[in-house]
Design goal:
By secondary structure, this protein is α+β, with helices and mostly antiparallel strands. 47% of the residues lie in helices and 19% in strands. It starts with 15 loop residues before the first helix and ends with a helix.
Amino acid sequence: MPRAPSVATPPLPATDGLARAIAQFAQSDGDYTTAIPGLSLHRRHETTAPLHCIFSLGLGVVAQGHKRALMGDEVITYGPGQSMVITIDLPVISHVTQASVHEPLLGLMLMIDSRTIVQTAAEMSLPPTRRSAPRPISIETLDVHLLGDLVRLVHLLDEPALVARLAPLIQQEIVIRLLAGPHGPHLQHLAANGSPSQQISRAVAWLKQNFAQPLLVDELADRAHMSPSTFRQHFRALTGTSPLQYQKQLRLQEARQLMLSKHLDAGNAAIRVGYESASQFSREYGRLFGAPPQQDVKRLRSVPA
């Protein structure tokens, strides 16, 4: 009996051109902001330890090497030929899993304004999404046209006089292709007026601006026009954590940055981000970052950029 023909999985697009473009500007290990608003380039020549960080709304692409992110109990791996879209600011644990001196990890992150997504989606005739449970992170095969847009955007850094004119046009095309492609249903939940995803996104935006204030979840739920139990359910589904845990991670991340960049001691950093108890701050800091504040900051300062 003849066998049914198998359906071949489409090959991942080659990202060598994007890797070369990134390497031209990111010539040593580090995270590089660029003259193009929202665009950053990244390079690592070796694997890294897991790092607590916040993924923000945008498009991430690894042109060379591989990365892994842990969101709650979910492990997400991605590498060349894939695109990652984040629709809500997420506390994650991320690290480089494949990189070397000869083939360093090379990637980029393009932040996207939610208002641009909402406005562009409204102007496009998009079929209604069928996805009932939106995911805060989606990994899809990198469309070759989207890949070409990203290469053009990075190469535009060679023409600083044209950045202000051309970068917004290329970024607009990127948003259109994201909405029209496999990430489209994922992004439409963000654009849908009154959707749970949109309401939780607004609550997260409020938390980012007011994390040092005491958090009353019932009041936050009221802001999102949800009952407290429904709000907690949707919040955890989208962020992988509870509102209180999310606030705690924002506070501790900010305190870490204050100690590193502003040279504050642990006590002053704790007060600045909203802690009333220094001992509670030290306990929660050590639980999240694996070491007490002073020891952790000393270790970070000893690590080359």
